[in-house]
């Protein structure tokens, strides 16, 4: 039976071949640059995708919450890093996880460092997150007083060990000159490594964002890369120049419920609760919530003429349809939507269907929202 025969409502499709190709390309790039690839699994959040990743030499992963770390514990990862300023209210849960799993956290202030110093019962590593221009979170790159205060407090604990510096140059999503951003980020990490490696000879530096890791070819002496969205990519990444549409590994299958040829509109069952409400702006200022693709037995194909989801509500989606699409589609058909933001779409849907008709896990389908 075709995977298409299983679909009666919005369903997130995952093309294993494309996903594996994305994993292979990023693993090869990391190897060429002498770097360790520690992908951020906030995008896939899947044990099965994790098993695919291991086939490309990936031994450690990054997650965005302790809940996600718990989901991946016991799956054979050498280390799981929580790339979010550690929430001190979750210290008890951290102790539970660290009992059986190598785990590391991100620290950005003295208060949380002191709490972990006093309350950790098992070994936990930590990175100091550095802000070198993004402005979201982290210790300012030249705030040596705070960096050293964190390190001093951590030294008082036998269970808290310094691993290195983590930098997420997330402004590559908003600023066109990614090369300049990476030059600044690499210089910041090099400066910190040179300043502290005498005292901490094994410290590592890690940089991670999908736009930069996809297009930059000079990482200096940075030790590790940690992109996440690359495993699936999405239309945001296509528009940023990180990848092509052919590299997008997920598509939301949506049923066609009405067609208005006079308005060149197609109504589908697929809205904000399935795709999230991330949006791309068209050159004319109109909104685009995802690109239409044609589904087939082997996955999907990109139309010659573009059609896109121009508006969504909770369950509804309205497609701005090309003449080509209007001649092909009928009520009751299925169409595919390449999402603007695959991480959020996957989180909304909580699971995947493969081209083989097999269900693929997602953390939300097991742990619940």
From TrEMBL:
GO terms for biological process: D-serine catabolic process. GO terms for molecular function: D-serine ammonia-lyase activity. Residues 19-213 form the Alanine racemase N-terminal domain. The keyword Lyase applies. Signal peptide: none annotated. The keyword Lyase applies. Pfam families: Ala_racemase_N (PF01168), D-ser_dehydrat (PF14031). It comes from the Bacteria. SUPFAM superfamilies: PLP-binding barrel. InterPro entries: Ala_racemase_N (IPR001608), D-amino_acid_metab_enzyme (IPR051466), D-ser_dehydrat-like_dom (IPR026956), D-ser_dehydrat-like_sf (IPR042208), PLP-binding_barrel (IPR029066). Keywords: Lyase. Residues 249-353 form the D-serine dehydratase-like domain. Belongs to the DSD1 family. This is D-serine deaminase-like pyridoxal phosphate-dependent protein. It comes from Cecembia calidifontis. The lineage of its organism: Bacteria, Pseudomonadati, Bacteroidota, Cytophagia, Cytophagales.
